[in-house]
Amino acid sequence: MIVVKAGGNGGTDVEAVCADVAELVRQGEQVVLVHGGSHETNLISEKLGHPPRFVTSVSGFVSRYTDRETLEIFAMVTAGRINKLLVERLQQLGVNALGLSGLDGRLLEGRRKGTLRIVENGKRKVLRGDYSGRIERVNVALLNALLMAGYVPVVAPLALSRQGEALNVDADRVAAAIGAALKAQTLVILSNVPGLLRRFPDESTLIPHIPPEKAQEHLDRYARGRMKKKLLGAIEALNEGVERVVIADGRVARPLLRALAGQGTVIR
């Protein structure tokens, strides 16, 4: 069982990822593909006159402020255009892909944050009206039914709150939650860098291996920007039973197969 997260930052070679998924399926592997949509959502938001707003939490994590209008744009782009084009490409490659978001069949349920505590221009602030959340439950029965029937689930990062509201959820942590729920052998997180870098953005300073007990230390010491969420998701997945996490380069040829061969930052 392999869970793959393909980056939403515009740097990942999606064609190459789909080709690798098709190759793995031909080899008899079960695969779940989780995708982001941040880059394309930014572009569409700008065109629609509602530009994105990114904020930094008091703990240093960067995230999108998701008011209701932003949520609807995010849903349109990720669960609509991106998800269905991925399904189309996988079907062209002979993969019986099935696209869904965390809303469908209550695949992903979580708690709405509502308010965000952020740091802006050196000052602490509270933002209200946010529609983002954290995953608390994965509908494992639904995923297993799809996998057993021969489908490859392609999952967009939306979830349902306890009150039935749509939520924007972080795709890296969605992949981690799904990997943990399925007890996946490997979680691969593809990005626009080779892995965790000791001196970002110098790509020659790749950290190839992190002992699990040192993962939090590496997050605090080396992770910058979006890499913080990726490493946090990796830690969560390992703590919940995933055997191996690889954070790897999604820009190269055969990105998924290279990651599975250990090219990237491996935490086992």
Task: Describe this structure as you would to a colleague.
This protein has 268 residues and is an alpha/beta fold. It has a single domain, classed as Acetylglutamate kinase-like (Carbamate kinase, 3-Layer(aba) Sandwich). The chain contains eight helices and 14 strands. The strands form three sheets. Strands 5-8-2-1-11-13-14-12 form an eight-stranded mixed beta sheet, sandwiched between helices. Helix 2 crosses helix 3 (68-92), helix 5 runs parallel beside helix 7 and helix 6 packs antiparallel against helix 7. The longest helix is centred in the first third of the chain and has 25 residues, at 68-92. The radius of gyration is 17 Å and the shape is globular. The two termini are 15 Å apart.
CATH class: Alpha Beta
Tell me the number of strands: 14
Q: What radius of gyration results from the CA coordinates?
A: 17 Å
Low-confidence stretches at least 5 residues in length (pLDDT < 50)? none
CATH topology: Carbamate kinase
**Strand order within the widest beta sheet:** 5-8-2-1-11-13-14-12
The secondary-structure element order is EHEHEEHEEEHEEEHEEHHEHE
Judged by helices, strands and strand pairing, the structural class is alpha/beta
Gross CATH architecture: 3-Layer(aba) Sandwich
Helix content: 25-40%
**Ends distance:** 15 Å
β-strand percent reads 25-35%
Question: How would a crystallographer describe the biggest sheet?
Answer: 8 strands, mixed
